[in-house]
Design brief:
The structure holds two protein chains of two kinds. Chain A is an all-alpha fold. Chain A has 15 helices and two strands. A six-stranded mixed β-sheet of chain B has the order 6-7-8-3-9-10, sandwiched between helices. The chains are: A mainly alpha, B alpha/beta. The interface of A and B includes residues 186, 188, 306 and 307 of A. Bound molecules: adenosine-5'-triphosphate and magnesium ion.
Chain lengths: ~300, ~250
């Protein structure tokens, strides 16, 4: 029953381009991208319990690395691999210093990181194009992007689901609950923190590369801006962190609102993300998935784990 | 009996305050060693040093012939030392069985299959009487149940040495005797036990050997009956206006 429902949903999503509208695929690409960013953020934010405001660093690193290597005549596949490698290697490097910070210090530190990368992208013009941005060769990519992001979204959810059910996920949540106690009971904390960050970074880095490939033009503000920093966090928190359905619901919700409301109020995005986070904290602690009525239904679908 | 753990000349100060001062302890394998002392004597600090959470300023800890040195707590746990906390610290938002599973998966050396792990978790929950709370979140348990959960989680790591930090504090007399029976059973299964306890009836009833810590110094050790009535110990407790015999009023 559940499997049938999920398969039907996937079949429906896959047939969207054939519904005759060229607008729908564009919308769903954004939705899938939001979902991928929110879910990959949640590996660290929800399961490991570290609010990483620098998740967009991985996205941006992937986006720029892809653009730079592809423009340097690297084959497409190699450019994608380089993008993922850049994000993952950076995650491995930042793990040791950043996981010495906890709570708000970690969040502020990672937020600082994103400003740093924005600055670097502005100032290393010879590599990044500076404020002028970076362009890659264009061609028709709407449908390829649609299916790439759809597959990447499903893959992300499969990975998160697998993590949540495995001992890896158990190590992550034990660290979230009480790092000292986790260590006292045999969990090599730093190793798992590093692993969580690398996993999270690999997905965001790949999404960044796909983004550049699809959108053709990127600049520092677009990939390292405050909006990109807050978006995954706001979506995950709205939907509910540390449960596979949470970031999905948050991403769907915010993508729709963004599409139909905020296009008319472009400068209000940031304020709106702030309001969403504050509102969730006030009225829906734990996010949409933890509203009892919704939680019961999701539980039946097997989409809320008893972590 | 061989010595399972030896702490030699341990000292530790916190911002100038000597919490542990030149303390040496030897634990015999298979025994129950009691550790008593007034509040702030440094008992919990000694536990934290043994499990690697706090590095001593001076001194060494040797476990099963291996010097623990700068080993991290997770390594020390996998070598076979496990503990409970004075103020219970279960993983609150996780179900009871997942709390114990963490000990099984990560607290031991080597790989264990999920099926075997789940079976062992159920056995442990049975042992501490939490079988029917298996799926409840730890946050839904009362203090007594949380103490039992901590014992199960500690046993899950298959410890050779178990450190119990005031496990019966807050329990009523019948719960206390049940826990005492469990502790004896754990020892019968070959686990060496080091326990901090304020309730004299419990320490005297369980310990083969008793240590007394006062202001960070080891002031007496030996057979429980002898130690409890030794002048230095009576003096230490009287200094706190609480004679040793009346100490069980605590908690
Ligand atoms: N992490 C720490 N940082 C600073 N001071 C500490 C720390 N841990 C313990 N202390 C101090 O060291 C002294 C010994 O504390 P400890 O907790 O070991 O005592 P205890 O014998 O377990 O007492 P109690 O019976 O109250 O549990 C106390 O003065 C305490 O305030
Ligand atoms: Mg103590």
């Amino acid at each position: 029953m559940r499997t049938t429902l999920l398969l039907l949903l996937v079949a429906f999503l896959a047939s969207i381009p054939f519904l005759g509208s060229s607008y729908l695929p564009t919308f769903f690409i954004i939705l899938f991208m939001n979902l991928i960013l929110a879910s990959s953020y949640d590996i660290v934010g929800g399961y490991l319990g570290y609010v990483n405001l620098g998740h967009a660093v991985f996205f941006g690193l992937g986006a720029y690395t892809f653009g730079i290597t592809w423009n340097a005549q690297a084959p497409l596949g190699v450019a994608f691999v380089c993008a993922v490698a850049a994000a993952v290697i950076f995650a491995a490097l930042m793990a040791y210093p950043f996981f010495r910070l906890h709570g708000a210090y970690f969040s502020l530190g990672t937020f600082g990181l994103i400003r740093l990368f924005e600055l670097l992208a502005f100032n290393f013009g010879s590599l990044t194009g500076g404020s002028g941005g970076l362009s890659v060769p264009s061609s028709y990519r709407l449908l390829p992007t649609f299916y790439t992001t759809l597959i990447l979204a499903l893959l992300t959810l499969a990975i998160v689901y697998k993590i949540a059910k495995s001992r890896l996920g158990l190590a992550f949540v034990s660290i979230r609950e009480d790092e000292k106690v986790a260590r006292d009971f045999g969990v090599p904390v730093l190793r798992y923190q590093t692993l969580a960050l690398m996993l999270s970074a690999s997905i965001a880095g790949l999404m960044g590369a796909v983004y550049t490939w699809y959108i053709i033009y990127i600049n520092p503000e677009a990939v390292f801006g405050t909006e990109m920093a807050l978006l995954p966090v706001a979506m995950a928190m709205l939907g509910g962190t540390g449960a596979i359905a949470g970031p999905v619901i948050g991403a769907v919700f915010i993508s729709i609102v963004e599409e139909f409301l905020w296009t008319k109020l472009p400068y209000l995005h940031l304020a709106a993300y702030g309001l969403v986070i504050a509102g969730v904290g006030l009225f829906m602690p734990g996010g949409i998935v933890r509203v009892p009525f919704i939680e019961a239904r999701l539980r039946w679908l097997g989409l809320v784990e008893d972590l | 009996m061989p010595i399972i753990l030896e702490a030699s000349s341990i000292s530790k100060s916190f911002r100038g305050l000597m919490a542990i001062s030149d303390v040496s302890v030897r634990l015999e394998e298979g025994q129950i060693t009691g550790l008593i002392g007034p509040n702030g004597a440094g008992k919990t600090t000694l536990f934290n040093i043994i499990t690697g959470g706090i590095a001593p300023d001076r001194g060494t800890v040797t476990f099963l012939g291996k010097e623990l040195g700068k080993l991290t707590p997770d390594r020390i746990c996998r070598l076979g030392i496990s503990r409970t906390y004075q103020l219970v610290r279960p993983f609150l938002s996780l179900p009871v069985y997942r709390n114990v599973l963490i000990g099984v998966y990560f607290g031991r050396d080597g790989y264990i299959s999920s099926a075997k792990a789940e079976r062992e978790v159920d056995e442990l929950l049975e042992f501490v009487g939490l079988r029917d709370k298996r799926a409840a979140r730890a946050s839904e348990l009362n203090t007594v149940e949380r103490k039992h959960l901590e014992i199960a989680r500690a046993l899950a790591t298959l410890p050779r040495l178990l450190l119990l930090d005031e496990v019966v504090a807050g329990l009523n007399p019948s719960e206390t005797s049940a826990v005492m029976e469990s502790i004896r059973e754990i020892r019968r299964r070959g686990v060496t036990i080091f326990l901090i306890e304020h309730v004299m009836k419990v320490v005297m009833g369980l310990s083969d050997h008793l240590l007394v810590l006062h202001h960070g110094e080891l002031i007496a050790e030996g057979k429980p009956e002898k130690v409890a009535t030794s002048p230095a110990v009576v003096e230490a407790y009287l200094g706190h206006r609480r004679p040793a015999g009346a100490y069980h009023a605590e908690g």
